[in-house]
Write a structure and sequence with these properties.
The complex is a heterodimer of chains A (about 375) and B (about 140). By secondary structure, chain A is an alpha/beta fold. In chain A, about 35% of the residues lie in helices and about 20% in strands. Chain A contains twelve helices and twelve strands. In chain A, strands 3-2-4-7-1-8-12-11-10 form a nine-stranded mixed β-sheet. In chain A, strands 5-6 form a two-stranded antiparallel ribbon. In chain A, β11 and β12 form a beta hairpin. Chain A starts with a strand and ends with a strand. Chain B has one domain. Chain B is built from no helices and ten strands. In chain B, β9 and β10 form a beta hairpin. The two termini of chain B are about 20 Å apart. Classes of the chains: A alpha/beta (about 375), B mainly beta (about 140). Chains A and B meet through α4, α5, β5 and β9 of A and β4, β6, β7 and β8 of B. β9 of chain A pairs antiparallel with β8 of chain B. Chain A: This is Acetyl-CoA acetyltransferase.
Chain lengths: ~375, ~140
């Protein structure tokens, strides 16, 4: 296992709703916090990768951060925007091209479910007009099929959402900071059967920035470097079941989550059984359930037992979404993937405060999933 | 009367059917039609009518009125959405005529229907496709 790339500075703008503060402004706050954390200035950076889905072009941030002529490359990969920026930074440093740079993810979405134009996905207008172009429906149908296949009870979905709000209450940067009971979650309006309103995340706002450098120079910037051991992105295969699919193949194949997770464990030379803390895409609570097994962290059908015994709690043996995940933080598309990495850096440094995993976690795993059937994963160690 | 998109449909002796593509090289099917084969990466796709009956593969119920581009009638009623497996062809996503989740189950037989969806600005009824529980056939 080689350690070639280090994360030496992290910054975040609180997630949720910040009226009157643009997404770009939130990105600047996160970037300046990350620079301060690393003890460097923007003029010291040799490269930047960043992106947002709805809040503007990342490369325009130089007008506020400094006109230093550095190469700033925009990344647009939906939910994997942050992951793709990290892959790009990893490659820039591994290739020897650069030693020190920054990745920035930010967003600011309108209230309510995302409304995507079918034409952007190469789908006919009829698909949107007749009410099929909704991510919420996909997750309802995927978990419905999954519960049918594994025999797990739908009651596990309320337990996962309750954990998210419980963890969010411990995280000062989270949006939803009030615990909700399983009864309140189950009784909230039905969005897409069997998923209720409080089982879903909501589109939101937020920003995260990370300063990365060559691992052998990490101690110039911090005495507690966290190493990026792997970062992967995969698209869908023929036969997988993905969001915005007017049709599916009858022959079944693994999801891009399975491919991206397998690839990142191979890249890092680390096994799923070595993970001490995991941040998984929880667009809704069924996604967390399915992704626990798709990433290889447990077996299919084993999740309800793990959740019942408290294994995925902050103090459990497989803590999942320790910062409250998307359910408690909301989903700013360009920022969510880097939020997960930010949380794992806090955990590995021992700086997570009230939501700190006990026992000094050493290996952190992150996973995002989104349209049109993509997944990005990272592995961090200290 | 018109449909949401005439290119999705074809007439068959058994009634209107969805039109998909079939790869002449590997046999993979898609819906709607497309030019490239997502399975073997070739470009020998041919039009094919899809089966009008199948079984429910998964389902949900849309509980809130979607934002535009959704163009449904002003009064919103929750509607069923599902994937229906058409034997040896493809699994198609569609609205369902049934919106009570307690009356839907994975594996139930389904049949294709054209159903009223909305009335356009010129007052013309617009039809779309939906799958109905097969027991309702011939109602």
């Amino acid at each position: 296992m080689s350690a070639d790339v280090a994360i030496v500075g992290i910054g975040i703008h609180p997630f949720g709703r910040t009226p009157g503060v643009s997404g770009r402004r939130q990105a600047v706050v996160a970037a300046r916090a990350a620079l301060a954390d690393a003890g460097v200035g923007f003029a010291d950076l040799q490269f930047a990768f960043g992106g947002s889905h709805s809040a503007g072009d990342a490369d325009t941030l130089v007008s506020e951060l400094g006109l230093t002529s550095l190469p700033f490359i925009n990344v647009a990969n939906g939910c994997a925007t942050g992951g793709s920026a990290l892959i790009s930074a990893y490659a820039a440093i591994m290739s020897g091209l650069h030693d020190l740079g920054i990745v920035i993810g930010f967003d600011k979405h309108e209230r309510g479910a995302f409304n995507t134009d079918p034409a952007e996905h190469g789908i006919g207008a009829w698909y949107g007009e007749t009410g099929l172009m909704l991510t919420t429906q996909f997750f309802g149908m995927k978990i419905q099929r999954y519960l049918h296949r594994t025999g797990m009870d739908a009651g596990v979905l309320t337990k996962i959402a309750a954990k998210a709000f419980r963890n969010g209450a411990l995280n000062p940067k989270a949006w939803r900071r009030t615990p909700l009971s399983e009864a309140e979650i189950a009784a909230s309006p039905m969005i897409s059967h069997p998923l209720t309103q409080y089982m879903y995340c909501s589109p939101a706002e937020g920003a995260v920035a990370l300063v990365l450098c060559r691992a052998d120079r990490a101690h110039h910037y911090t005495d507690r470097p966290v190493f990026l051991r792997g970062a992967t992105l995969r698209s869908r295969r023929y036969g997988s079941f993905e969001v915005f699919s007017p049709w599916l193949a009858i022959e079944r194949a693994d999801s891009p989550t399975v491919d991206a997770a397998r690839a990142v464990f191979e890249q890092a030379g680390i096994g799923p059984d070595e993970v001490d803390v995991a941040q998984l895409q929880d667009t809704e609570s069924g996604a967390e359930l399915m992704h626990m097994a798709e990433t290889g962290l447990c077996a299919h059908g084993e999740q309800d037992g793990l959740i019942a015994e408290g294994a995925t709690e902050i103090g459990g043996r497989l803590p999942v979404n320790t910062d409250g995940g998307c359910i408690a933080n909301g989903e700013p598309i360009g920022a969510s993937g880097l939020r997960q990495v930010y949380e794992n850096v806090l955990q590995l440094r021992g700086d997570a405060g009230a939501h700190q995993v006990p026992g000094g976690p050493r290996v952190g795993f992150t996973h995002v999933y989104g349209a049109p059937g993509i997944s990005a994963c990272t592995l961090l160690t200290r | 009367m018109r449909t949401v998109d005439d290119s999705l449909f074809t007439d068959t002796p058994d009634g209107v059917a969805l039109v998909g593509s079939r790869c002449a090289d590997c046999g993979a099917h898609t819906f709607p039609r497309q030019g490239g084969c997502p399975r073997c990466t070739g470009d020998s796709m041919q039009d094919v009518p899809l089966a009008r009956t199948g079984t429910l593969w998964s389902f949900t119920v849309q509980g809130f009125r979607p934002k535009p581009p959704y163009a449904g009638p002003p009064e919103f009623e929750p509607y069923g959405v599902g994937y229906v497996e058409l034997p040896e062809q493809v699994i198609v996503e569609a609205r369902l005529t049934e919106s009570d989740p307690d009356r839907l189950w994975i594996g139930m037989p389904m049949v294709l229907e054209l159903v009223p969806f909305r009335t356009d600005d010129a007052g013309t009824p617009v039809l779309t496709f939906a799958f109905a529980p097969a027991r309702e056939e011939g109602r």
